[in-house]
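Troubleshooting entry. Yesterday's outputs looked truncated, so today I'm pasting the complete records for two proteins to confirm everything comes through intact. If either block looks cut off, that's the bug. Protein one:
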Amino acid sequence: MSDPDWLVWVREAQSIAQTGLTFSPEGYDRERYLALQALSARMMAALGGGDPALLVTLFAAQTGYATPKVDVRGAVFRDDRLMLVREVADGHRWTLPGGWADVNLSPAENVAKEIMEESGFEVAVDRLVAVLDRTKAGHPPQPFHAYKLFFLCSITGGVATPSAETSEVSFFAEDELPADLSHDRVLAAQLHRMFRHHEAVLPPDFN
C-alpha cells in the first residue's frame, strides 16, 4: 500500500510553504508561501474530503522547517502475551499503547509515559525494535508524513487501568490477536514482528 500521488504532492507543497515561511518571514515571498499553504489545504480538502477551514488552520499551525512527525509504540509482554489497548478515538479498536512524541522527552521516555497513561503499567524500555516510515509500512493515508518507532518494554509495576484515551487493557497470545485493529496506529504484521523480537534479539526493522 502507498499513499495516492495527489496526497504526496499536497504534502510536499505544504512542507515547501511551511519551510519557506520559516526562512522568508517578510515581503512578497511570505505572501506567496501563505498562498501556497492555503492552496495546499484547499487541494487536500477537495481531494480528501476534509473541511477546508480546518485544514487551513491545521497547516498554519505547523511552523519551522518541515520534518516528519514521530509516533512511538510500546510492545509490552507478560507470559509471552502481548498487551493491547482499545483506542477510544478510533471506535475502541485495538492497538499498541503509544502516540505522538512530546518535546523535551527522549523517545524512550515518551513511550514509557504513553504506556503508563494508556494502560496503567510502569515499564522499563528494553530496546528499539523498529523504525518505520508510516506510509511505506502500509498504514492508511494521513495529512502529515510520519515515522513510527517501536520499543520492546517490560513491566516494572502498576495494574491494568483504562484511561480517557483507552477503554480496555488486555494481553493476547499470537494466535488470539484481535481482528479489529486501529490501522492508523498499528498493523497485524507489526504485531507479529513484535512477537519475533520478543522471542530473540534481532536487528531493528526499518524501511
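Protein two, checking that the full record survives here as well:
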Amino acid sequence: MGWISLSRMQKAIERTLPACKPDGLRVSENRPLGKETWRVLFWVVFCLALLGLGFLVDGPVGRALTLQSSDSWWQLAFFASKAGEGWVVAVFGIAGSLSLFLLRRFHASRGVFLVALTGLMTGATATIIRSLVGRTRPDSHELQGFYGVWHDSHWIIGKYEFGAFPSGHVATVIGLAAATWLINRKFGALAGMYALLVSWSRIALGCHHLSDEIAAAIIGVCGAYVVFSRLGPVIKNLGENLEKFWLKKPRASL
C-alpha cells in the first residue's frame, strides 16, 4: 500500500510540474530556431571551415605565390602593399570626403568618409588581435607558431616577426571594399579588385600566410556590417548637420 501511495504521489507531482513552468520557458522549449539564427550559425561554421582550410594549405600557397626580390613582379607587389597601408586609406579618404563636401556633393562625401572609416576600424581591430596572438610571419627566423605576447623572456607585442595573424593590410582593404559594396555595387567591384591586389602582394612579399588573410577578410566583412549598422546612422546625422551649417554659412561678398 505504501508503495502504491508513493507511486500515485510521484505521478501527481509530474502532472503538476509542467503547469507550474513560466509561460516563457514553455514557449522557448518548443519554439524552433529562427531563420536569422540559422543564417548566423551557417556563416560561423563556414568561416571556421574556410579558416581551417587556410591553415592546411598555408605552405603550398606560400611556396607558389612568394616572389624573390629580384623578380619584376616583386616591384608591383611592393607598391601594391604600400597602397594598402592605413595612412594611405586615411589620407585619400579624408581628402576625397572633404573635396566632395566642398563641391556640395554631401551624400557622396558621407559615403567616402564612412568607407574610409570602416577600413581603418577593421584594420585597427586586426592589428590589436595580431599583437596579442603573436604568430610568426613566413619570413621570420623564429620557429613558426603562435607565441602570444611573451617569447624568449621578452615582450613581443608590436614586433614585426610576430605580427602575422591576422593581416592588418588585408583587414583594412577588405573592410573598405565591403563597405563600398554596401553603398554601390560598381564601385564595390573596383574596390574588391584593389583589395585582391593588396592581399596578393602581402603573400607575394612573404609577409603573411593565407590563413592570416582569410582571418583578416572575415574581420573586414563582418566589421563592415557592424560599422554600417552601428555608426552609419551616426555619420549620416553628423553629415546632415554639417551640411546645414555649411549651407547657412554666410558667403563673403567679392
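Both blocks look complete. Sanity check on protein two: The domain at 35-248 is CATH 1.20.144 (Vanadium-containing Chloroperoxidase; domain 1).
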